[in-house]
Amino acid sequence: MTLRPDWLPALAAFETAARHQNFAHAAEELHLTASAVSHHVRKLESRLGVALFQRHARGVSLTAEGRQLADAAGSALADMESVLSDLRAADAERNRVRITTLHSWTHSWLLPRLPAFAALHPRIQLTVDTEVALTRFDQGGPDLGIRHGQGHWPGLTAHHLMGDTLFPVASPQFPGIAQVRTPAQIAALPLVSDLARQGWADWFRAADVHGAHLDERYVFSDSTAAMNAAAHGLGVALARERIVTPYLAGHRLVPLPGPRLKTRFEYFVVYPSHRRLRPAARCFVDWLLSLERE
Question: How do residues 192-215 score in pLDDT, each as one tens digit?
Answer without folding.
Answer: 999 888 899 999 999 999 988 888
